Amino acid sequence: MSLSMYQASVPVFVRMLSNLDAILDKALAHAEAEGFDPCVLVDARLAPDMFEMARQIQIATDAAKGCVARLAGVDVPSYVDSEATIAELKQRIAKTAAFVESFSAEQIDGSEDKTINIKLPSRELSFTGQVFLLHFALPNFYFHISTAYGILRHNGVKIGKMDFLGAV
Is the CATH code 1.20.120.450 the one for domain 10-165? Predict the structure, then answer.
C-alpha cells in the first residue's frame, strides 16, 4: 500500500501540533512551579541570532497551514503573529490544527505533481507538490517545533523525547 499525500501531511501536522500544545502545558506548569512569568519562555531563544520561542511556533503553524492550503489549492489564511503569551500560542496552535483537519483526503491526494510556488523576500521557489511536502514543508515544520522544544528544554522545562513524539 502506498502512502498518500494526505496521510503524509494532515495527520502528521495535527499530531505534532497536539504534541506541541501538550509541551506548552508543561512549560506553563514549570513556570508556575518555579514562580516566574511564563512570558520569559515565550521570549526565550537558543542563540542571539535565532528567533524567540513565540516566532518558532508562529513559523511552525504557518508551515502546517500553508502546506495543506497550497496542496489543496486554496488561499493560505494569514495570521497576525501577535502572540505574546503561552495561552495565545496555544490558541494559534488550536486554530491551525482545526484548519489543517478541515481538509479531506480528496482535497490533498493527487497533488504530487502540482506546481507549488513560494514567494520569499529575495526570491521565488518552485516545487512539485511531493517535493514541497517532503523536502520543504515537513522539514521546515519539524525544524521550528524542534527549536521551540529545545528552547523550553534549555530553560529547564521537564520535557523529553516522548513529549516531542507524543504517545505511540
Answer: yes
